[in-house]
Structures are given as C-alpha cells and as structure tokens.
Design goal:
The chain is mostly helical. It has 3 domains: about 120 residues, Ferritin (Up-down Bundle), CATH 1.20.1260.10; about 140 residues, no CATH class; about 60 residues, no CATH class. Helices cover about 85% and strands about 0% of the residues. The protein is built from 15 helices and no strands. Helix 7 packs antiparallel against helix 8, helix 7 packs antiparallel against helix 14 and helix 8 crosses helix 11. The longest helix is centred in the middle third of the chain and has 47 residues. The termini are far apart.
C-alpha cells in the first residue's frame, strides 16, 4: 500500500511539473527562455516515465494522470498573467523535489536534475546571481527581479490583513455594545481607514522606489557617456563573477557598449537590478490594488451587520469570516504546497482566536462602562 502511494505521488508530481513548465514555455515571450522551460518540461516527463516504469516492474498500475486543483489553478494563472506569477511556486516544488529525491534510493540522477532546475529558476527570478554562460546568461540573469508571484502572494496577504484586522475590530465593538449601528459604523470606518492607509503606504513606497531608480539610471547614463571604458570593465566583471571566461565576458561587454541605448538597458538590469521600462511598476496601480484588496477582505466581517444586529449578526459575521479565512488559507497553498485543509483551518484558527480576544476585551470594557 505504501509503495503504491509513493509511486502515485512521485509520478503525479513529475507530471504536474512537466505541465507547468510546458505552460510557461507557451506563454514566455522570450524564445530563448521559452526553450529553457520546454527542455525542463521534457526532463520532468522523463522522470514521470521512469517512475511509471518502476511502478510497472513492481506490479503497480498507476491511474490516468489528472491535474490537481492546485496545478490547474497555476496553469490558469500562468496563461492569464504570465510565467512570473507561478515561478515562485514552481521553484518551491523543485526545491522540495531535490530534498525528497536525495533521500531516495536510485533517484540521485533525478535529484541532480531537480537541483539544476532550481538553480535555473533562481536565475530567472533573480534571487541568486551566477553560473551560466553565453546568451542564455544575458537573458536569464539580465531579467528584472520577477514580482509576479510575490504580487500574487501580496494580494492574498493584503485581503487577509483586511479580513483579520476588521474582524477583530468588529468583534471588539460588538463585545462592548452589541448595537448594530455602532458595529457597522466602526466596521466601515475600519475598512476605509485601513484601506486608505494601505493604499497611501503602497503609493509612497512604489513612488519613492521609482524616483530612486530614475536617479540611478540617470547617473548610469551619464557614466556611459563620460566613461564608457570603465562601464564596459564593470559589466565584464559582472559576467566573470558568474562564471563567464574573461575573454568572452569582455567581448560581450564591448558588444553591448556599442549601442548607448542597449548599454543603458543592460547595465540598469545587470548592475542595478532595475527594469528601465517599469521602474518598479505604477505607484497608482499599486495603491488602487492595495485599497481594493484590503477592502474586499475587510467587508466580509462587516456585511452581516448591514442586515442584522446583536448576537445573530455576530454569529453570522464569525461564520462568514471563517469561510473567507479558510479560502485565503487555501489560496496560500499555491505557494507553500501544504495541505489545503491544514492551511485553511490554521488560518481560521488564528483569525478566530484574534476575534475572540478582542470580543472578550470589548465585553469587559462594555461591562465596566455600564
């Protein structure tokens, strides 16, 4: 029974990885990076076929592969928003696979390949610098730090902040008064205050980053115009530090510096880690997104008090919030790979504990005042 479960899990994980890499190869705009994804997808399929072969030798029949809800969701997100959105999730899968295969007898070859995949993804995401040569280096290492997956994670956490903070506020006021109008007013005020604060903070953060990036790029542009030889040397050293031979690194740097526009773009990406076309994204887009996400989470515990009051509204608010918390916990498993039930109920538990504490404190304050 254990062997059957083991082979099914191993086969399913490899097929899921192959499907995700194939999806990224289809939506990736850069043909060279798309080719990298396509080759990794082929490797994952070979891993799946190896597990299927071993299962057959052991007399185990594997079921027909059907993508899980998590895999289907990641495929949809990749097709809808691009590969950057799902890269962190796939990187986590590769790191998990590397650790698991390292402990399996006869899987050392697959462990090495999974580790290689993880390193490639590190390069694409930009969290690790180094170790690949040629034109692929320029494309993989030169990409701006991918923010798609982090943005999606931030979206889930932003909605969670709105839900938990406003649930705690609503329960605190409800514990003190149990009056529908007071709770509703406090809940709406908390929603607006929190959403505006989040939006303003996000706007200031992104706008400050954009201004810093603009200044850095202007400085880099001036250095290219006044000291192109020094900039070429800096760029060559960057490539050398990543494993490129000195001669090839210098040739690459000299070729890039032949065009001022191309040189500025490359140096901004390689030396500063900035995408000149985006400069960290739109401050207004970030602010509006933060406002909406926080508000969507914060409206959940308030909604029951629009139609009801007293303890019925409190119970309804807790139930509705528990559903929302479970959904957010389930959404986080897209990045963590943990069980939906575990993550969902963990989020519900922490959220309800916070609500219970504030309700109790509000009750004590309300009784004291009375």
């Amino acid at each position: 029974m254990e062997d059957t479960k083991f082979f099914i899990n191993a086969y399913t994980e490899e097929r899921a990885s192959a499907l995700l890499y194939e999806t990224m190869s289809q939506v990736e705009k850069d043909p060279r990076i798309a080719e990298v994804y396509k080759r990794i997808a082929g490797t994952e399929m070979r891993h799946a076929e190896k597990w299927a072969s071993q299962a057959k030798e052991a007399g185990i029949t594997l079921p027909e592969y059907k993508p899980s809800w998590r895999t289907r969701t990641l495929v949809w997100l990749g097709k809808r928003f691009g590969p950057g959105v799902i890269l962190p999730s796939i990187q986590n899968m590769e790191q998990t696979g590397t650790a698991a295969y390292a402990q399996m007898e006869g899987a050392m070859g697959m462990s090495a390949e999974e580790q290689s995949h993880a390193r490639l993804l590190d390069m694409v995401i930009g969290s690790v610098r180094g170790g690949i040569q040629g034109s692929v280096l320029m494309q993989l290492e030169g990409r701006h730090r991918s923010t798609g997956g982090n943005a999606l994670r931030a979206a889930v956490l932003g909605a969670n902040d709105g839900l938990v903070s406003n649930l705690s506020l609503v329960m605190g006021v409800a514990g003190a008064t149990l009056a529908g109008n007071s709770v509703l007013i406090a809940g709406v005020a908390g929603l607006l205050a929190g959403a505006i604060s989040m939006a303003l903070g996000e706007w200031l953060s992104v706008q400050s980053s954009r201004e810093l990036y603009t200044n850095q790029i202007a400085t880099e542009k001036m250095e290219i115009e006044t000291a192109p030889e020094e900039e070429a040397e800096e760029l060559a050293l960057i490539y050398e530090s990543r494993g490129v031979s000195p001669d090839i690194a210098r040739n690459m740097a000299d070729q890039i510096l032949t065009s001022r526009e191309s040189a500025l773009d490359t140096l901004a990406r390689e030396e500063l880690g900035i995408d000149p076309a985006e400069l960290g994204g739109s401050a207004w887009e970030a602010a509006i997104t933060s406002f909406v996400l926080f508000a969507l989470g914060a409206i959940i515990p308030v909604a029951p008090f629009i139609f009801s009051s007293g303890m019925p509204a409190v119970y309804f608010s807790i139930g509705l919030s528990a559903i929302g918390l479970f959904g957010l916990g389930a959404a986080i498993t897209l990045f963590t790979g943990r069980s939906v039930v575990y993550s969902g109920f963990r989020m519900v538990l922490f959220g309800l504990i916070a609500a219970a504490v504030t309700f109790g404190i509000g009750r004590l304050i309300g009784v004291s005042i009375a």
